Every structure is written in structure tokens, then in C-alpha cells.
Amino acid sequence: LGPAPDEIPSEGGDGCSVPQEKLKPGYLEGLPDKMKLYSQFLGTRPWFAGEKLTYVDFLAYDILDLHRIFEPNSLEAFPNLKEFMARVEGLKKISAYMKSSRFLPHPIYSKLAVWGSK
């Protein structure tokens, strides 16, 4: 999938602390093609590695969630990815955690990061 917009190195700093707004339009333009690859790989299976939940699903969830936060409509054209996200979030322990006071949706990177810190 490639680096997220704020992970792309630039001169004078790292991608989490240096604004990358000039790269955002190009990244978003190519995002549907990248999401399509995830969608095609998942297909009609419930989980990325087959019929059973594995650690791979948590890695895929994390990537898809970051993109969903960065561009809320990024999964709209991919019902199977949206269903996958709902399946992960519906897991008993994950659901309980996300509803608890311990769950912090932000900051994603750090409080100093330009993107994902609020």
C-alpha cells in the first residue's frame, strides 16, 4: 500500500512532524486503487487469511482504520472492507474495549504529530 501521507520522508524532518499537505491530493487520487487491492484480496472471505481470525486481520484493520480516519470515504466503494471493519469492531473483547474509558481514539501518532494528533 505504501507509506501513509504523514510517513513520507521529507527534507528537514520526519513525516509525522512536517506538514505533507502538498502530497495529500496525489495520495488521495491513488487511494481507491490501493483500497481495491485490499478488497480483491479479502474477496468474500470473512478474514484476510481465510475462515479464521489471525493476527494478520489486526494488521489489516489498523491500516484500513488509519485510512478511514485520514479520508472518511476511503472505504465507501468497498462493502467487503466495511463489513470486515465491522466484524473486527464487533469482536466481544474489541467491542468492550472500544466502549470503555480506556479506549483513546487520538492521538494516533503523538501529540506533536501534524496529522492524527487531535
UniProtKB/TrEMBL annotation:
Subcellular location: Cytoplasm
Pfam families in UniProt: GST_C
Presence of the UniProt keyword Chaperone in the record: no
Domain of life, source organism: Eukaryota
The keyword Cytoplasm is annotated on this UniProt entry: yes
Main location: cytoplasm
GO MF term (any one): glutathione transferase activity
Chain positions covered by the region annotation Disordered: 1-21
Alphabetical UniProt keywords: Cytoplasm
Listed InterPro entries: Glutathione-S-Trfase_C-like (IPR010987), Glutathione-S-Trfase_C_sf (IPR036282), GST_C (IPR004046), GST_superfamily (IPR050213)
Subunit field text: Homodimer.
Protein name (database record): GST C-terminal domain-containing protein
